[in-house]
Amino acid sequence: MTRTWDTVIAGGLVFDGTGAPPVVEDIAIKDGRIAARGADLDPEQAVRVIEAQGAWVMPGLLDIHTHLDLEVEFDPALREVVRHGTTTVLMSNCSLGLAYGNQRRNGEDPLVDCFARVENMPKPVLRKVAEKASWTSSAGYFSHLDDLPLGANVIPLIPHSMLRAQVMGLNGSVSRTAGEADLREMETLLEQAMTEGYAGFSTDSLPFHFLSEDPNRRVKIPSQFGQYNELKRLTAILRKHDRIWQATPPKDKPLAVFRNFLLTSGRLHGRPLKVTAVAALDVAANKSLKRLAMILSHLFNSPILKGHFRFQALAAPFKVFWDGPINPLAEEIPALRELNELDLEDVEGRKALLADPGFRDRFSRMWMTGKSGFGLARLKRMMRMETLAFDRDFEQMIFHAGGPDIWTGESFQQVFDRYRAWRSDPAFARTSREQGVFERLPESAETEPGFMLALFSEFDLGLRWWTVSANRDPEVIRELINHPLTLPGFNDSGAHITNMAFYDGNLRALKLAQEEGLERVTSQIRRLTREPADFLGVKAGRIEIGDCADITVIDPDALEAYDSEANSTFIWREDYGHEQMVNRSDGVVKTVLVAGEPVYEAGEFTPAAGRTPLGRALRHESWSGGRARSEALAAE
Which of 634, 278, 338, 301 minimizes the C-alpha distance to 470? Predict the structure, then answer.
């Protein structure tokens, strides 16, 4: 019997990503594309039937903020995102990526130097990637991605730090001002990348992103040295080609943020520039940042300025794990940064620094700033207007592993209070191991900063703990991810591999929507599929006839019962040779198809995952059919 279709997904509640009400219908797939949709398709005409009764069927979800450039080199199937229903990811955010290969020259190693501290990636993992990154051009990178057996679609950006290093050398890009010849070469390379189909360009200005190798451990990454004129010239190329600028702003310089983001204005610059920025977060230490983000969003997108601007939003509490003193938030604080400057393997260096009286004094003054006495710092802390993202609140700092077992799940405040009580009465120690730890702590541990320093000295990186530095209120999270001027998806997938895991960020957004009813689910699916795809200018997030069949099937009952926090765990990655924090949403996602082929189903990856090229390296939609349109734009 001749079969009309390869696959029929039968009887699911289909959300098409447009925001239209869902309908119960079948979807037929032929040669990797949507061939038919309807309520009465004959399953006998299909080679394979996927029963989806009672399930939600939708376009594959998009993750718009990732650093999966690294992971895709180890696992082209991108299993850690696909298992959560994501089929398209935007890579090379925050000015970092692999567009120009490893860029090793003159003893420089930019991938290791830039990624290690900014994205908290172990240097051995980064060196493995650098060995693989043999291409030397943006065109070569696309060719490389085209050749991988991708299990999901990837959208690379041109990363500003790497662009500067390509033109000026890594050391030159952080030690001298870009001259006219440098700027022209950057413009040429960026223009070339746009004609090759790149979706845009990423920059970074966060004040705590530093290089990790000598002699630059106290030097910020190259993108931080790009002056306003450089940004203006480079973003003019994006504006001409209608591509995106992914920006990580200088959060402590509001005037610079405002000036930079005015580049979105169509009224001031003749044509709007698409900007997606990090991030609309409800930071616990500074409640004004969320309000400022929303004010700026309204202003930049107003009829006055005519911009096209979206802050990214995270559909979860911003829970970050620390390995002793090592964490991305630590880089913002000079005293903690001194510990982060050292290599992870440098145990003796950390011990020496922790024992140094000058460092201990600097740390103590930092830790108690705003916590005692009177003055502006105290007032800012009371009003929750501090500049630091880490609020140094013992009540909000929770032990996870590495100390006595009874500490797990307890706050630093609980253990600190018990320690101080133990100093007067040893009966307060609850176990013999806790007794032993308390006995080894110095007398200085009776103060908050002394207690922190003592724990770092005692356990080093073995002490794992966490804090929620932003998005503590679920209702504020809901407000942010539903705001029409944000894009849900500040997930940072593929980065900070022992610090955080938001691979399931899209499922968290859907779960929040589910609590409000099917109408909100419909809207949220649009915001996780078609809306970001349209913003990025790529062909994804759709299930209309003729579209590539990237489809996610979700069990709504399992989603309702899903507890992301309880299902975050640490695994050992043999390919990395390192552990990684991940999410496990097994049972929530029933099936994921990429280009019509099941990649994940019934909690298992299919043989096609990582072996068959299914995902695509996506170019901007204007690139399709050749270079004619890009050349026409370049001539304008």
Answer: 278
**Secondary structure element (H or E) that encloses residue 601, with its range:** strand 597-601
* Long-range contact pairs involving 322-326 (C-beta distance under 8 Å, separation at least 24): 322/463, 322/464, 322/465, 322/466, 322/467, 322/499, 323/461, 323/462, 323/463, 323/464, 323/498, 323/499, 324/350, 324/455, 324/456, 324/459, 324/460, 324/461, 324/462, 324/463, 325/350, 325/456, 326/120, 326/461
pLDDT in tens, 43-86: 999 999 999 999 999 999 999 999 999 999 999 999 999 999 99
Where exactly are the structural domains of the chain?
61-317+471-623, 330-469
Largest CA distance in the chain: 85
Q: What is the CA radius of gyration of the chain?
A: 25
| CA nearest to 493, candidates 84, 141, 24 | 84
Query: What sign results for the dihedral spanned by CA atoms 279, 282, 287, 292?
Result: positive
Strands (E), 271-414: 274-280, 308-313, 318-323, 397-401
Ranges 305-309, 331-335, 383-387: which has the least confidence: 383-387
Domain 61-317+471-623 has CATH 3.20.20.140: yes
The β-bridge partners of 321 are 466
pTM (global) more than 0.90? yes
* DSSP category for residue 520: H
Write the pLDDT tens digit of every residue in 527-568: 999 999 999 999 999 999 999 999 999 999 999 999 999 999
Q: CB under 8 Å to 276, separation ≥6 — which residues?
A: 64, 244, 245, 246, 247, 309, 310, 311, 312, 487, 535
Distance from C-alpha of 535 to C-alpha of 530, rounded to nearest angstrom:
9
